[in-house]
Amino acid sequence: MTPEEARAQLDELRVLIDDVDRRLVALLNERTRTVEEIGRVKRSAALPIYEPKREAEVFANVTSTNHGPLTPDAVKRIFERIIDEMRSIQKQRMLSDGDK
Q1: What CA–CA distance (Å, rounded) separates 46 from 41?
Q2: Considering its fold, how many domains does the chain have in total?
Q3: Cα 57 to Cα 61: distance, rounded to the nearest angstrom
Q4: Who's near 41: CB < 8 A, 6+ residues apart?
Q5: Residue range(s) defining the domain that contains residue 88
Q6: CB atoms within 10 A of CB 89
Q7: How is residue 71 annotated by DSSP?
Q8: 49 compared with 58, residue with greater pLDDT
Q9: Which one of 39, 66, 68, 95 has the lowest number of neighbouring Cβ atoms within 10 Å?
Q10: What are the DSSP E strand ranges found in the chain?
Q11: What CATH number does the domain containing 62 carry?
C-alpha cells in the first residue's frame, strides 16, 4: 500500500469514526436526560444520589453484554467515567432545582 492509498483509506475510516462519535454523543445526551429525571425523582423522595448497588448493576449489565473487542475491564472503566459525569450532573441539577 502506498502512503497515498493509506491516507485515502484513513480518510474513509475517519469519516466512519466521526459518525460513530456523533451517535455516541446523541446516546450520552439521551442518557443524561434520563439521569436528570432520576435526579428529580430522587430529590422529591429525599433519596441519595450515590447508590453503590445500582452502580454495580450497571457495570454487570454493560460487561455482560460486551462481546468485544473491548475488554470487560475497558468497558467498566469507560462506564465508571460516564457514571461519574452523570452523578455530577445529577448533583448540579438537584442543587439548581432546589433553588427554585
Answers
A1: 8
A2: 1
A3: 6
A4: 47
A5: 3-98
A6: 15
A7: -
A8: 58
A9: 68
A10: none
A11: 1.20.59.10
pTM of the predicted protein model: 0.85
C-alpha grid cell, residue 73: 475491564
User: Any idea which residue has 433519596 for its cell?
Assistant: 47
Cell numbers 436526560 correspond to what residue?
33
What does the alpha-carbon distance between residue 18 and residue 30 come to, in Å, rounded to a whole number? 19
pLDDT digits (tens, 9 = 90+) for 73-92: 999 999 999 999 999 998 88
Cell of 43: 430529590
Q: Residue type for 48, please?
A: P
* Residue ranges in the chain assigned as alpha helix (H): 3-44, 52-64, 72-98
Read off the C-alpha cell for 25: 454523543
Q: Is 86 exposed, middle or buried (0-12, 13-18, 19+ CB in 10 A)?
A: buried
**Pairwise CA distance, residues 80 & 40, whole Å:** 22
Are 85 and 79 in contact by the 8 Å Cβ rule? The answer is no
